[in-house]
Amino acid sequence: xxxxxxxxxxxxxxxxxxxxxxxxxxxxxxxxxxxxxxxxxxxxxxxxxxxxxxxxxxxxxxxxxxxxxxxxxxxxxxxxxxxxxxxxxxxxxxxxxxxxxxxxxxxxxxxxxxxxxxxxxxxxxxxxxxxxxxxxxxxxxxxxxxxxxxxxxxxxxxxxxxxxxxxxxxxxxxxxxxxxxxxxxxxxxxxxxxxxxxxxxxxxxxxxxxxxxxxxxxxxxxxxxxxxxxxxxxxxxxxxxxxxxxxxxxxxxxxxxxxxxxxxxxxxxxxxxxxxxxxxxxxxxxxxxxxxxxxxxxxxxxxxxxxxxxxxxxxxxxxxxxxxxxxxxxxxxxxxxxxxxxxxxxxxxxxxxxxxxxxxxxxxxxxxxxxxxxxxxxxx
Length: 380
Hints:
This protein is α+β, with helices and mostly antiparallel strands. The chain has 4 domains: 46-56 and 303-373, conserved putative lor/sdh protein from methanococcus maripaludis s2 fold (Beta Barrel), CATH 2.40.420.20; 60-67 and 212-298, Efflux pump adaptor protein, beta barrel domain (Elongation Factor Tu (Ef-tu), domain 3), CATH 2.40.30; 77-100 and 181-207, CATH 2.40.50.100; 105-178, Helix Hairpins, CATH 1.10.287.470. Helix content is 28%, strand content 38%. The chain has 4 helices and 20 strands. The chain has helices at residues 7-33, 105-141, 146-178, 229-237, and strands spanning 44-50, 52-74, 80-85, 92-93, 98-102, 181-183, 188-190, 200-201, 210-225, 242-246, 255-267, 272-279, 291-308, 313-315, 318-324, 330-334, 336-341, 344-349, 356-360, 371-373. The strands form 3 sheets. Strands 1, 14, 15, 16, 19 and 20 form a 6-stranded mixed beta sheet that branches. A hairpin with a 2-residue loop joins strand 17 (336-341) and strand 18.
């Protein structure tokens, strides 16, 4: 059976279907045109440190060279056979200690001969003086001529001069014999032995028999740029200037001394001034010829703003740090950098005590980046 559908109902159904299709198309188009949201970047892991305020020393750091306080090259003043060496090379010796003995027998014989000549000439002098006394009475009585008396007096004066010369020869013989025994002129450390027992020693030879270095106290010599000379003179005039000598990097117990010498001229070729510090060197840690790190402490700077040196970055506009804000984001803060002390740097301008800065992980940071502060690993 055929059912007739009214024209109005057909139009209404067609309109509803079109509306539904339009809704579906709109939903599909909206779904296709919606942009996906980018994933949020995770926070950058960094290490941080707090900006601190403290008193720091004002120091000059340079490379120094250790020098003996005094050096003596021991030579013989006489010639002869070296019969005895009284020390071991490399041994510490005291001032006045016997070092060498040169065969004294030839000099003992020379001394005995000189003493014998002195005795003989002294006896002749006494006889001549007696003749002078006797002839003085005779010439007064006219028993002898004045000329004969004058001759007696001349003979006595000649014998007196001979005795004086003999005394000088005896003194020189004593001195030559004394030179057979060579003593240390200072307290110090002996070096390599350059003359062994049995060697024939020449007087005042070119080569020393031994070299002795005094190492207690000891010098450390170093140079600093001439621009620091006014400050050095200022603080030296006000008291002792402390100098530390570090034998190895990061040493906890450096040797401590005092600045004692400023050279009288600036080296024109290098623009530096030579300085010397004196160290007691009680433990003998410092050794002549050794290189050390010398640190001169001129004064102290109170209330200095300090950050770890690793926090300082360098960009096109100068030096800066990444400052950590309360919301754990960072900002780039320009700073004026002063002196560096060990692993810390003085900030002249740009930071305040209590602020936090990034010390590691800056390569992944930009201003406004979110961070996560991690604990420092041991050894960093």
